[in-house]
Write a structure and sequence with these properties.
CATH superfamily of the largest domain in chain A: SLC41 divalent cation transporters, integral membrane domain
Number of helices of chain A: 22
Radius of gyration of chain A: 31 Å
Strand order of the largest sheet of chain A: 1-2-3
Oligomer: homodimer
Number of strands of chain A: 6
Helix content of chain A: 55-70%
Distance between the termini of chain A: 91 Å
Largest sheet of chain A: 3 strands, mixed
CATH architecture of the largest domain in chain A: Orthogonal Bundle
Chain lengths: 468, 468
Amino acid sequence: MAPPDRPSEPSVGWAPPRLDEIIRGRGVTALRVVVRVWTPAAVAAAIEDLSVDDQVIAFRLLPRDVATDAFEYLPVGVQEGLLRAMAKEDVGRILNEMSADDRTMLLEELPAAATQQLLNLLSPEERATAVKLLGYPEGSIGRRMTPDYVRVRPEWTMERVLDHLRRHGHDSETLSVVYVIDEHGRPVGEVGIRKILLADPSTTVAEVATEGVTPLRATDPEETAIAAFRREGREALPVTDSAGVLIGIVTIDDVLDVAQTAATEAQQRFGGVETLDEPYMEIALTRMVRKRAGWLVVLFFGEMLTATAMSFFEKEIERAVVLALFVPLIISSGGNSGSQSASLVIRALALGEVGLRDWWRVIRREVVAGVSLGLILGTIGFARIAGWSLFSTLYGAHWFLVAMTVGLALVGIVLWGALAGSSLPFVLQRLGFDPASSSAPFVATLVDVTGLIIYFLVAAIILSGTLL
Amino acid sequence: MAPPDRPSEPSVGWAPPRLDEIIRGRGVTALRVVVRVWTPAAVAAAIEDLSVDDQVIAFRLLPRDVATDAFEYLPVGVQEGLLRAMAKEDVGRILNEMSADDRTMLLEELPAAATQQLLNLLSPEERATAVKLLGYPEGSIGRRMTPDYVRVRPEWTMERVLDHLRRHGHDSETLSVVYVIDEHGRPVGEVGIRKILLADPSTTVAEVATEGVTPLRATDPEETAIAAFRREGREALPVTDSAGVLIGIVTIDDVLDVAQTAATEAQQRFGGVETLDEPYMEIALTRMVRKRAGWLVVLFFGEMLTATAMSFFEKEIERAVVLALFVPLIISSGGNSGSQSASLVIRALALGEVGLRDWWRVIRREVVAGVSLGLILGTIGFARIAGWSLFSTLYGAHWFLVAMTVGLALVGIVLWGALAGSSLPFVLQRLGFDPASSSAPFVATLVDVTGLIIYFLVAAIILSGTLL
């Protein structure tokens, strides 16, 4: 029904009526009229601004279907708070009516005890679905799947498909596409809504169905779905079990969420932080410090080895203090080179451009790149010391040998940085960790310690008999 | 039409017939029959594997609509090669029939001269559209927009809408949703295909239209679209000009592409590499070395200041070589702290969680975090030197003062790292650069030079009269 008070020409910057004022006035009729024409996202946004008590009242007043739709658009943290504050029967109603994929996303965030309590509120049928979806490994496509889609048979006519859609399409996550299955329940094709609407009503599904969509597997990692959606350019993709039977679909809006969350985690891990899991401005400072302290302390212990390595060469430094001057320049160049390699390989792994089997080809590329970049920096380093020595005595009488030492050490260290930075993501992935954990600071620490050893060994060889 | 040779029960691991064999046998009928049932992505994948000559033949043999659809799914590099090899009239045909958003994506990658040549092949109407879309700034929503969508009026019945869809829906990018416009062409709501199919045919658009979708603006940056799609959870969003008039739509599949490309660029920039713009395994080694050498050399010149800073303190190092031992440990801790802050702030800026106006709140958080983390590392550093000094004489008689120096310097440097790492992205964004360019190596270099100065100043104060 169109609300009587609906403006005939809403302004362009659409400003929602204030939900809090309506609730305080207990304007039930106004509320129902207003929310009926809003998108679920707009209702959710208005509810999110309310206090928890008002949120509970709002959900009691809202029409059932509007309430459930809006609930799905709330952030998981707000959903949690609401469930705690709502009466049991309201919780049960919303959970039973939520779409299965959004429910999984909520349940997997809760502590195990809370999840169990909520599962008990579900109808036997919905509980079976929820438990099944939670049974897939974390980060797998199964967790993002919904069993709400429309299946048709090859011999059906478009008329029958349309009729079927009208009767069974209410709960489907998408109506953009219906799936054609064979007698074993395996997907053999799909028909888009465009063809259904535009084809002659007597055309059969077999005549217009599209082939060639490779289904996703429920146990495959989420990243596979991102790549598949980019390749196929569709709004939904079918998901099968290991026997190839169609068991659900994944929709592209969930995949966009997965992609953005994965990118956030990768960026934070690569920066050397445990993933925050909360927006930067909202996370409590103590929690953030704890998430940062972990890696920072681990790296600090690793970096302590540089002090140990330096103390091994204390005699050399005493004899030739000039060597100490270049320590920061040398080790940071190795770290920078390693950071470049790591970021390129981590992203290539995440996009599926390279896999574990490609490690040897990657290493070969990095050897060439590392030597080239090392020669460039080494030449600049040599030239800098040689150049200054024409006008000053800062680097002493043996400036040529010092310049040679720095130049050669740079070649070795930049190469070593490229190798370490490109190998570490592979090693971590092979061991079952996130490749993005080979963070810039991690690689830098790794390269710092070995870089010092390379530098002082080169110095010992070149400067032996003169400075050392 | 269903192909006569279509298997009644395709295998689950769908294996496409070999297109190259069909082409070599000039099996036109077979080809047309086979591709008719494939998805455009599958046709494109099969074509991509062919030689350029065979690709041209394939495009001549393919039915027109199949050819255009498949062309849109080819990577831009392959599209370019094909356009060069195809006859002028084939090029014109494909370009005229391509959807406007995919065409923009191709044209913006080409050199200006090539773009102009191709524009000349377009019909006056298509050329006007193409020029208009290319007129929006790079990286803006206008560039990802298509003018192919369905508009309806509030007073229309569902029956009329369905009829309109059947007649005008062929070229629309999506049929999931139609847009309701007022007499000025401004969007006032939308109706989903679900409601169109399920509502009574005599219901009017005004009765079922949904309000509350805030339109995107053509001149806004692409990142705005990513956030809006995540918030709204829709398959397409309307785009308006500055007067609020509906001028196109953006679909979620393009936004997924935008999001993934943006994440790749951010990861590479943060690692200190110019963005590759090509997959890691495909880019020519010389091009990759050039893309990496740029930043590496700039950072190397910056890092040279550490040698200058160190030479200022050469006398101090000569007198107390023990100070040199902790240089790598100290400066890397500052770099690690800065890398953490930068990665958190860069991602928060990219997600729109913080904006330029929040810089002061961010800095305040980072001061607290930096001091806390500095105290943790400082305490560990102090304890380590104190502990070793119980069993060895490595750090000399004044070990307590040395430990104090290292501990205090760590507090200052970790704090300085957090401040530099969190401010730099804001500064870059303010100056119109990509905040992600405040890479881990960039921040580390910034912190290294100032960190050395902090360290030696603290040493000068604490050790004056004893070691110095």
